[in-house]
Automatic annotation (TrEMBL):
Belongs to the UDP-glycosyltransferase family. Residues 1-19 form the signal peptide. It comes from the Eukaryota. This is Uncharacterized protein. Keywords: Glycosyltransferase, Signal, Transferase. PANTHER family: GLYCOSYLTRANSFERASE, SCOPOLETIN GLUCOSYLTRANSFERASE-LIKE. One of its GO terms (molecular function) is UDP-glucosyltransferase activity.
């Protein structure tokens, strides 16, 4: 645990997509500016997306010349590409070009639980921040007794309406495309075609999106 001589140490584990890696790198920047030691955990193929932010942050921390500020570090875990039959260069959802590749990618990221837990035991942080997609990290927190915070970068309006939209889609007749989202102060209509991919991913993830 953190003491007067050792700063609070937090591990941040973003989902492997640009819209998750970059915001959590910014969160690490904010933490580090308040004297928190931050370690970002990711796979080798995703370092390139955050290394500029980390480098700029560490240069700024160094320029302040304050002893309580600790540079951000990056720790790596291997992405289980071979286990699901993925090419070695597919470690980010943005390069999952076909439905088959994307499906295998989501299968692979579900296999990160064990290496993530082993890495946590190795680093032994005071707490960790895991992306909302890593629902299994709640079990890791319980097994390791390391406190957990959840990062969800979704906007508040979208997050509040997400569950009700899925409920509508699951009960909507197949020949109906347009529907209104209830519970909003103004009429807001959407099309079934806007949500087909997300609905498919919800089924693939088997509840792992929800915490």
């Amino acid at each position: 645990m953190a003491t007067q001589s050792s700063p609070l140490h937090i591990v941040l584990f973003p989902f492997l997509a640009h819209g998750h890696l970059l915001p959590l790198a910014d969160v690490a920047r904010l933490f580090s500016l308040h004297g928190v030691k931050c370690t970002i955990l990711t796979t080798p193929g995703n370092v390139t997306y955050i290394e500029t932010t980390i480098k700029q942050t560490n240069e700024y921390l160094k320029s302040k010349n304050e002893p309580g500020l600790v540079p951000i570090s990056i720790s790596l875990i291997p992405f289980p590409s071979a286990e699901v039959g993925l090419p070695d260069d597919i470690e980010n959802v943005s390069v999952s070009s076909s439905p088959e590749i994307r499906h295998k990618f989501f299968q692979a990221f579900l296999l990160l639980e064990e290496p993530f837990e082993q890495k946590l035991k190795e680093i032994n942080p005071d707490a960790f921040v895991s992306d909302t997609f890593y629902a299994w990290s709640a079990d890791v927190s319980a097994r390791t007794s390391i406190p957990r915070l959840v990062f969800n970068g979704m906007g508040l309006l979208a997050r509040c309406g997400l569950d009700v939209v899925y409920e509508i889609l699951e009960s909507l007749p197949h020949d109906v495309d347009k529907f209104a989202v209830p519970g909003l102060p103004h009429r807001f209509e959407m099309h079934r075609s806007q949500h087909l991919f997300q609905l498919k991913n919800k089924q693939i993830l088997s509840g792992c999106v929800w915490i």
